[in-house]
């Protein structure tokens, strides 16, 4: 056979060779496994019922237990408690979000949280069991110092809910439990890097040097020399957008009777002289003192629980509710405390005695930390903002969080349920309660409400759905 080819035919073969090579490259590339976003479920989605087909029982019962643990565990100040609600809420959401095809994980959206464990592709999961396992694990770690009796309650609830929600597919049950535990373990490891880990051991750090000078915070009637958690504002927020919010600024200090700041404190003093019975009830209802209650952020978490029950939400809606609310109160406390310890603003107790009436006694004792802005107002507003986004601006509910508590005999106040036409109405009353209690000025409350709305709006702006 003649090896010689005419030039025209040779060029044709060369072109065919080039096309063949190109085709093979495309074919090989197409056969390769494409990279998967590590923050999202794998290309093969889990099978079985989606998370929105389960009741909210798991979420409600764990939220209720966490409120009890916060009240009865030493060291769970409002700041420490807010953080615990944040991580527990996120754990609840991340344990079930792979079972919601239209929802998005928070991995890659929260500071320092780059990846989370993924479920096995094309395998059946029971999302109620995943949520149960995640809550049991994260709460054990967050409340590791709680009493033996409380630890028994955690174990008992986990077993009861496992028995209630397990199904006939035992491998799926075990797979679901293991996934929930992995989520909780990963989130707890992440939590150790935020600056607030084991904060219950350092509520009042003896090494802190209290700044002194005109207009700066001083110990009040409780006699505590060190303010609570002076470094909490240095902690990492969940959202970078919240961390980057500009810090508000209080009115300039002055004791001049014509100054704007004098008018603020005089207003508090005047209110103390004409409190109505209803205003006293409001002040006591929202006080939420640690050890007596689940703390102020717990009150918001309790309202979230009430919303879930009132709306008859499913597990998916409940988990997102607790995640958003937990993040809201946690970031609110970090930013509020950051501002408090930048300005070290005087409490009314100190200012009024200094500039108006040296023998004045307020209706409610001042907490042991600076005044501006109000923590109640900030966290209540932030929580109300996320809850309004989930349930609507006109969601009516009855707050029965403190029903059953013994009467406050010294102030002649009973704990009666309070009804609201919206979450923002309850946030406003929470803020007003601190003015009625004579422990915050109106500027403290107004600033807290405004900043809380910004914090909550940033949380709502996360990518919750795909």
UniProtKB/TrEMBL annotation:
Chain ranges passing through the membrane: none
GO molecular function per UniProt: peroxidase activity
Species annotation: Spirosoma aureum
Phylogenetic lineage: Bacteria, Pseudomonadati, Bacteroidota, Cytophagia, Cytophagales
Highest taxon, organism lineage: Bacteria
Listed name of the protein: Vanadium-dependent haloperoxidase
Keywords noted in UniProt: Oxidoreductase, Peroxidase
């Amino acid at each position: 056979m003649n090896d010689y080819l005419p030039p025209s035919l040779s060029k044709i073969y060369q072109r065919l060779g080039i096309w063949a090579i190109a085709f093979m490259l495309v074919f090989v590339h197409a056969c390769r496994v494409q990279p998967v976003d590590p923050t999202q479920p794998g290309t093969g989605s889990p099978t079985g019922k989606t998370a929105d087909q389960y009741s909210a029982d798991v979420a409600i019962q764990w939220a209720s237990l966490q409120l009890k643990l916060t009240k009865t565990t030493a060291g769970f100040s409002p700041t420490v408690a807010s953080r615990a609600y944040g991580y527990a809420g996120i754990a609840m959401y991340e344990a079930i979000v792979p079972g919601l095809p239209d929802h998005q994980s928070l991995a890659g959206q929260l500071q320092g949280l780059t990846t989370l464990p993924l479920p096995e592709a094309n395998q059946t999961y029971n999302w109620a069991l995943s949520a149960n396992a995640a809550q049991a694990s994260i709460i054990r770690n967050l409340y590791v110092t709680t009493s033996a009796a409380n630890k028994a309650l955690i174990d008992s609830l986990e077993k009861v809910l496992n028995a209630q929600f397990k199904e006939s597919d035992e491998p799926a049950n075990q797979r679901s439990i293991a996934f929930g535990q992995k989520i909780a373990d990963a989130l707890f490891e992440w939590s150790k890097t935020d600056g607030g880990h084991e904060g219950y051991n350092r509520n009042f750090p003896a090494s802190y040097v209290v700044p002194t000078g005109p207009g700066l915070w001083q110990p009040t009637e409780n006699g505590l020399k060190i303010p609570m958690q002076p470094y909490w504002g240095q902690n990492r927020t969940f959202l970078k957008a919240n961390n980057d919010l500009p810090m508000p600024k209080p009115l300039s200090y002055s004791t001049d009777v014509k100054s704007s700041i004098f008018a603020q404190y005089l207003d508090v003093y005047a209110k103390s002289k004409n409190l109505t019975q209803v205003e006293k009830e409001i002040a006591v209802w929202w006080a939420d003192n640690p050890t007596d209650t689940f703390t102020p952020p717990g009150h918001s978490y309790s309202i979230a629980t009430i919303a879930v029950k009132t709306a008859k939400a499913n597990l998916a809606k409940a988990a997102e509710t607790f995640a958003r609310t937990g993040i809201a109160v946690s970031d609110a406390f970090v930013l509020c405390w950051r501002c408090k310890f930048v300005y070290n603003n005087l409490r009314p107790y100190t200012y009024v005695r200094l500039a108006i009436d040296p023998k004045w006694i307020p209706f409610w004792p001042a907490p042991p930390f600076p005044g501006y802005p109000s923590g109640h107002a900030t966290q209540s507003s932030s929580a109300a903002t996320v809850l309004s986004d989930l349930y609507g601006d006109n969601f009516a509910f009855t707050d029965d969080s403190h029903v059953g508590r013994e009467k406050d005999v010294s102030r002649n106040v009973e704990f009666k349920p309070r009804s609201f036409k919206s979450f923002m109405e309850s946030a406003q009353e929470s803020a007003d309660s601190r003015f009625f209690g004579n422990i915050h000025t109106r500027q403290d409350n107004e600033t807290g409400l405004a900043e809380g709305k910004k914090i909550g709006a940033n949380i709502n702006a996360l990518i919750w759905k795909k």
